[in-house]
Design brief:
The complex is a heterodimer.
Chain A lengths: L16 H7 L10 H24 L3 H8 L2 H9 L9 H31 L6 H16 L2 H14 L10 H27 L2 H9 L4 H31 L11 H12 L3 H34 L4
Helix pairs in contact in A: 4-12, 5-6, 5-8, 5-10, 5-11, 6-8, 7-8, 8-10, 9-10, 10-12, 11-12
Chain B lengths: L15 E12 L2 E12 L3 E5 L6 H8 L7 E6 L2 E2 L7 H7 E4 L11 H12 L4 H14 L15 H13 L5 E5 L7 H16 L3 E5 L3 H7 L2 E6 L2 E6 L1 H6 L4 H12 L4
Parallel strand pairs in B: 3-8, 3-9, 6-7, 7-8
Antiparallel strand pairs in B: 1-2, 1-4, 4-5, 9-10
Helix pairs in contact in B: 3-4, 3-5, 5-6
Chain lengths: 304, 261
């Protein structure tokens, strides 16, 4: 959080907050010190072995391994075979990625507009404020899958020309944007509130207009503060693109479903799960990295 | 452009930079300013003293239009800036204010901090604004800090940058709100030196301060505030040595006892 600048005098504080940071240098996942690495390695092996034993010794283990973890079926579903009646899960994931990227950009814009509208206090903006508040309340409350149904089946049924003739993926993105913008606008709002009022005063006192103060002073600091929670929402968004499959868009989850319906084997779902993990884990680690960096900066007494 | 109608200050009207009449301001039920009357001549340096909560900061914030006032009027260079329809941004551009907590923009370099308002509010070209900013930074010994972010600077340096940032708008009036109160004692002097130089250059200034010896040194006039009113005012030599009002005497005695006068 970037508060009003603290009087920091450029000297590192020995034995202060920094020494706490140093004790935690190295991997935060493993703990610190050579002994800690040995202990965490051993305990990891024990836990994994116990879980593996539980899985392998269960009465239905063989059946589950065959229906969910069959290497041949996993490979077949990953590659796909249109002549056999199923799509490549790997290729279908590309649609998830495209939907994610399109939705992400739109959400960032729509959510910011909503947040800024809700933060205004001029009476002229009252109707817009009310509409924005209702919008956020409604779309945070309605399950995403229902929004997808409403948009994906409702808009085509309207017979409204352009609006009713889009692909399932487009309706899916629209539903994702509607739903997620409501959440993300609240994240933005928290970010705007986290910028100290004295920054507004400083900007306005220089003769900057309300808009300029917002644009050059408040928003940049707000956005910086909310990057970790924002990325968290986007990790969620990445996997929620799978829900668009209910509209018939051939994304990874839908391709896996078609495979399992055709071949009567669920290994394709495991493939889809692994592919989603490959997508989300880097983003999750990146988020952790940003949070850790932010924490170090705060301990060092300011934001650079 | 109305002239000083009542000749309140007793001086020719055109020299009055600031005229405050019957200024009242409250926050909720808390009456902070209870009828302030004050006029400030051009090039005059006025120090506002008084206990915390006496209304010094609020008065300065009202002058910069950061706080809407409840009653009274503020006339700057003959123009009533408290009447409706006034372009507040334009008024603020000619009135610089520096805060106790510096309030630099932490996400911008020193140079950007100083040039932001000239570029965005005065539509100066970036090159021009940077040239002027560098000249100002140089004047106050901060040129080598131009590329640094505020958190790399000492408190004294940050406050000097804040002063430069206000000066970059070429204000005709500077308001300094306890600008040394957040500083470590050894950093106070460098900021006071800057203010001294400003005063010497003829800048019209209003300072809220707890630095009594500095006030005595720099002010043309000292105003003692209590309970949202100016209780007593006069040249520093007079007010500090022979205060007439009992409240002023009590305040100064406390300050003296604390070893700050």
């Amino acid at each position: 959080m970037v508060g009003p600048p603290q009087p920091s005098f450029g000297e590192p504080s020995p034995g202060g907050p920094d020494s706490f940071g140093q004790a935690r240098r190295g991997s935060r996942l493993l703990g610190s010190g050579r002994g800690a690495v040995a202990v965490s390695t051993a305990s990891t092996i024990v836990v994994l072995a116990a879980l593996a034993a539980l899985f392998l010794l269960a009465p239905g283990s063989a059946a589950v391994r065959h229906t969910f973890f069959n290497p041949a079926d996993m490979w077949k579903s990953l590659i796909g075979d249109p002549r056999a009646g199923y799509y490549s899960v790997g290729e279908a994931l590309w649609l998830n990625i495209r939907m994610f990227l399109a939705a992400e950009v739109l959400i960032l814009i729509v959510a910011m507009v909503i947040a800024v509208i809700r933060q205004t206090d001029s009476p002229v903006m009252f109707p817009l404020r009310i509409v924005s508040t209702i919008y956020v309340d409604v779309f945070r409350g309605v399950p995403l899958i229902l929004v997808i149904f409403a948009i994906g089946f409702g808009l085509p049924a309207l017979n409204l020309g352009f609006v009713s003739t889009q692909s399932a993926a487009v309706y899916g993105v629209a539903a994702l944007v509607l739903s997620y913008s409501a959440y993300v606008s609240e994240v933005y709002r928290a970010g705007l509130n986290s910028v100290h009022q004295s920054q507004v005063a400083a900007a306005r006192s220089l003769g900057l207009s309300h808009t300029s103060a917002l644009r050059y002073v408040i928003l940049p600091q707000a956005v910086r503060n909310i990057i970790p929670p924002l990325l968290n929402d986007f990790i969620s968004l990445q996997k929620d693109t799978a829900l668009v499959g209910v509209l018939g868009a051939i994304e990874a989850n839908k391709a896996a479903e078609i495979f399992s319906d055709t071949v009567f084997n669920y290994s394709s779902y495991v493939v889809a799960a692994i592919l989603f993990l490959i997508l989300t884990i880097p983003l999750a680690r990146f988020t952790d990295h940003l949070i850790a960096r932010d924490r170090r900066r705060r301990l060092a007494g300011g934001a650079t | 452009m109305s002239q000083d109608p009542a000749g309140l200050s007793g001086k020719p009207a055109e020299t009055d930079a600031v005229i405050i009449e019957g200024l009242r301001k409250s926050f909720g039920t808390n009456l902070v300013l209870d009828g302030i009357d004050l006029s400030v001549a051009s090039h005059e340096v006025i120090c506002l003293i008084g206990a915390s909560g006496s209304g010094k900061s609020t008065l300065l914030r009202c002058l910069n239009l950061l706080e809407p006032i409840d009653a009274g009027r503020i006339v700057l260079w003959g123009q009533d800036v408290t009447q409706p329809g006034i372009d507040q941004n334009r008024v603020r551009r000619s009135v610089g204010i520096v805060f106790q907590a510096f309030n630099l923009f932490p996400h911008m370099t020193v140079l950007r901090n100083v040039t932001l308002a000239p570029v965005k509010a005065l539509s100066a070209s970036r090159r021009e604004a940077e040239q002027e900013a560098r000249a100002l930074l140089d004047r106050f010994g901060l040129l080598d800090k131009q590329a640094d972010y505020p958190d790399r600077l000492s408190g004294g340096q940050q406050q000097r940058v804040a002063i430069v940032r206000a000066l970059a708008m070429r204000p005709r009036l500077m308001l300094l709100d306890e600008v040394t109160s957040a500083l470590d004692p050894e950093l106070v002097a460098e900021v006071l030196d800057v203010i001294r130089e400003l005063a010497a250059s003829g800048m019209t200034m209003l300072l809220a301060t707890h630095e009594m010896s500095f006030a005595r040194d720099i002010a043309n006039r000292v105003c003692f505030l209590a309970d949202g009113r100016i209780i007593e005012q006069g040249p520093p030599g007079e007010l500090f040595t022979s205060p007439r009002d009992e409240r002023t005497q009590r305040f100064l005695r406390r300050i003296t006892d604390a070893g700050r006068l």
